[in-house]
Amino acid sequence: MGSCAALISLHQTLNRISESDDFLSLTDKQCILDEMDSVLDKMEELPSSRIVDAAAYERRVIDALLIFQDLIDSHLSDPDHDDIGFALSLSQQMEIVKEEITSFLTATDKICSIRRYSNFASSYYNTDNQQQNLLVGLDDQITALKQWIFDPISHDLIASVVGMTGIGKTSLVKQVYNDPLVIKEFDTRLFLHIGPDYTRLEDIMLRVLDELGVVIPSDKLDDKDYLEDQFSEALSTQKYLIVLDDVWVDDYDVMPGNRKGSRIIVVSQIQRLLDYMYTQKFIILPFLNDHNSWKLLHQTAFTNREEKCSRELEKIGKKIAKNCEGLPAAIIQVGENLRGKSFEEWKTLSEQEDPLVITRYDDTPLSKALFFSYMMLPWHLKPFFLYMGVFPKYYGISRSKLIKLWVSEGFLEEDPGIEETGGEALDDLIWQSVVLREKLASVNSNRFKNCRLHFTFRSLCVSEAKSEKFFHILKKYTDCTLKNIRRQQRLCIHNNVVLALTQVHELMESVPNARSLLCFGPKQQYPVLLPSCFRLLKVLDALAIRFYEFPHQLLALLHLKYLSITCDRELPNSISTLSNLQVLIFTRHHNIKLSNNGPIYLPIDIWNMHKLKQLYCNGFDLPPPPDDCHLENLLTVSGVSVHSCTIEVLSRIPKLSRIAVQIESAHDSTETFSFFGHLASVHAEFESFKCVVVNPNMSSQIVRSVPNFPMNIKKISLSGCGLPWENMEMIASLPFLVVLKLRWYAFCGPLWKTSTGQFPSLEFLLLEDLDIENMEFDIRCLSRVIVRHCYKLENILDELTYTEILEVDDCSPSFMKKMREWRSFFGTEAKIRSSSTDL
Predict the structure, then answer these.
(1) Could you count the other beta carbons within 10 Å of the beta carbon of residue 643?
(2) In contact, 773 and 747? CB cutoff 8 Å
(3) What whole-number distance in Å separates Cα of residue 362 and Cα of residue 227?
(4) Which strand (E) or helix (H) includes residue 586?
(5) What's the CA gap between 505 and 740, in Å, rounded?
(6) What distance in Å separates the CA atoms of residue 322 and residue 334, rounded to the nearest whole number?
């Protein structure tokens, strides 16, 4: 299902071929590009519910494209190698590509011409039959839905119930639908399963009108305005309750008014429906907590009332229930599997990484439902979703890192807005309820900094990726068989010790064309060797592996776009050989500075890496640039000291938008950030500044004054600077500042007071480990406030009235008490936490 990624990647490779490369004529190059465009167009036309029928043909196209790209990339890496043999192989493979694309187009034309219901009938993927009589932990959601149904004041026609597959949406709605009081409330009730073949709003309205007995003339079947009028008129005659179950349409831009108090409940996995519907009522079903998870598992596993659960078995059972991560359908499936099983079998299951293994071939309702959710993803999102399986379970997947990897893998067309496009792809996966959001982003409250996969979807990702040769995970030696790793595009190391085995290196010789090596296992204290056979690598993430010296074999990886590495020594000057590198993350295992040490500079040739976009080099600095050298594509610089923050350096980075500075208080001189005066005029698009003083000395002030920030800056994060609150005036005047984070004595003193009109755009404020005692400020646009470990803080005046989200962690008992009272009075969403409570 990775044809989109394969096509985009090959497209990028073809664009790298210059006119001087005569191995592929312009005519042949354009012919291949046209053939690829035809595949893209056809995949766009193919409904998601029919993609499974085309999967085999798509797989053959992908295989042919990958071999074709391997040939070209291998030649670009070693252009002097056997030109005659290469030309013959390339010509033969190009014909195979054309043949496979022709077969694919012919097959998909036939698939689209057959008008029939999808292979995935409702009975195929519905988990409702399992859950109907086992609803646990959803009392609040049931109450909320009933309150809306019976509310005489509400004129909202539609309520939507959304959430991940298997979470109990249909079961909950059925329970409400069949409630005697609900039955009595409505003249007519309809419960309609919609399913994936209803791809337009008009189709759904036609289905409802047909059930209501309204006959539509054949010439009006596609007239949305006419159908809306008929729909509105039908609802005006009686009081209806209509449930539309399993809706996959995400374009609800038209909905009639509500005259009779009718109600429509839409059940869907697609959270984006909330953006389109004329409704303020929606219910997102939560995962079960540990208590309700065990309750549901116990009910499912012990159906016989005479069966008893010992304390030892209960302890093991609670661990198993917790491992189900709150998904009711998974808990029920596990409970059914455990019925009548011995104590040892329960114990064995509790010790496994996952309580269930999910594949497309499992004949269980849950596996079928999860696979169906995957198949229903828009085809261009499938590689993005599968890629999330490369991370270990419970790995905190950073949004920014994930997007950088997607870009480097070639999943996205390279254009100025490529990172924004990657962010939209991740958001789409979240709206489709296949990816779970975690840490809320500070700049945009609709986005999240971290995300993860539920274990069920991760299990499916791993099995699908392995069979599709998309990636393979290595945790132990037995994972490294020739059968497992042959032709894999990516190898993911979840236990870095396997790289110490000579046999593993020998087996990896069978996958020389792998494009990514991702080492996400626990950090390794002792060095191991990297395999030297991967000549076509585009992505190498080895941050968790320690190297005493920079592995010089990496300099031969000319296709490398993403390099993340931990090394005790400095980068070699020849690092510029990696001319395609876009992301460089370079850190040391130990970052120790002696009192007489000056700055440690990156090699001077770093200024010749013109494609570099992201530079993270903790403990290193950019050297003064040679004449006429610029890093014209560099957007982010992180981990440098003030020695990199000179006009000479920063003026040569014209697109710089984010910089993170680290100051060693014991070694760096007092800093005034005078460079910002120049930066403000040169970098009009500058967005983010972060300054961290390491081990600050509270008796002295390292940072003497607040920088003269560019007027367009949106985010400022300061730590350890020791500034007096009076110096906040300059920051308070910034017109576009949205996020302000103050940590570890960034500012010192008992009182922070602002004036009306200051911080005109500030939405997010973080205060952590400050000695502040009182805050008096009036910031009307402030929507989110986080206060952590401010143990002297006693009072925040009532200007927090406009705050939507408040979080308070471990402050003084009196302040915590005031915040609880304030929360109950204003009804703001608030989390008041201490080391002993979580409220």
Answers:
(1) 19
(2) no
(3) 41
(4) strand 583-587
(5) 48
(6) 12
Assess whether pLDDT exceeds 60 at residue 118.
no
Residue 297's φ and ψ, nearest 5 degrees, are -65, -40
pLDDT class of 608 with cuts at 50, 70, 90:
very high
Torsional class of 100: left (φ above 0), alpha (ψ -120 to 50), beta (otherwise): alpha
Specify the DSSP class assigned to residue 266: E
Residue 576: which residues within 8 A CB-CB, separation 6 or more? 603, 605, 606, 608, 609
Is residue 525 within 8 Å of residue 496, measured between CB atoms? no
- The answer to whether 242 touches 264, Cβ cutoff 8 Å, is yes
774-776 and 795-796: which strand pairing?
parallel
CB 770 within 8 A of CB 742: yes
Amino acid at 703: V
Q: Would you say 40 and 65 are in contact if contact means Cβ atoms under 8 Å apart?
A: no
Q: Residue 95's CB: how many other CB atoms inside 10 A? A: 11
**Residues β-bridged to residue 811:** none
Q: Which residue has the tokens 């962690």?
A: 809
Please give the Cα distance from 463 to 94 (Å, whole number): 30
The SS3 of residue 219 is: helix
Q: How far is CA 718 from CA 430, 442, 461, 694, in A?
A: 31, 15, 39, 11
C-alpha 224, offset from chain centre:
36
Q: For residues 248 and 194, is the Cβ–Cβ distance under 8 A?
A: yes
The DSSP-derived string for 707-764 is ----TT--EEEEES--EEGGGGHHHHT-TT--EEEEESSSEESSEEE--TTSSTT--E
What digits encode the pLDDT tens for the residues 662-714? 887 555 555 556 656 556 666 667 889 998 888 776 666 666 667 778 888 99
Identify the bridge partners of residue 708 per DSSP, sorted by sequence position. Answer: none
- Determine whether 678 is exposed, middle or buried from the number of CB atoms within 10 Å of its CB (0-12, 13-18, 19+): middle
Q: What is the DSSP string of 17-83?
A: --TT-TTS-HHHHHHHHHHHHHHHHHHHHS-GGGGGGGHHHHHHHHHHHHHHHHHHHHHHHSTTS-H
What is the C-alpha separation between 177 and 189, in angstroms, rounded?
8
Mention every residue, 6+ apart, whose C-beta is less than 8 A from residue 595. Answer: 666, 667
pLDDT in tens, 89-103: 888 888 888 888 888
Axis crossing angle, helix 83-113 with helix 26-45, rounded to the nearest 10: 30
Q: Report the relative pairing of strands 397-398 and 450-452 from DSSP bridges.
A: antiparallel
Most distant pair of Cα atoms in the chain: their distance: 89
CA-CA distance, 555 to 164, in Å (whole number)?
Answer: 44
**CA dist., res. 766 & res. 739, Å (int):** 8
Distance, CA of 119 to CA of 54 (rounded, Å) = 12
3-state class of 469 per DSSP? Answer: coil
Q: How far is CA 114 from the centre of its chain?
A: 36
Q: How far is CA 315 from CA 67, 324, 592, 614, 750, in A?
A: 52, 15, 46, 47, 49
Tokens of 464: 């699908």
CA 609 to chain centre: 29
> 35-46 in b/e burial notation, b at 16+ Cβ within 10 A?
bbeebbebbeeb
| Helical segments of 549-691, H only | 647-650, 676-682
Distance CA 315, CA 641 (A): 51
Tens digits of per-residue pLDDT, 185-230?
Answer: 998 899 999 988 887 888 888 898 888 888 888 888 888 888 888 8
- Give residue 463's Cα distance to chain centre: 20
pLDDT band at 839 (very low <50, low <70, confident <90, very high): very low
| Rg, Å, the chain Cα set | 30
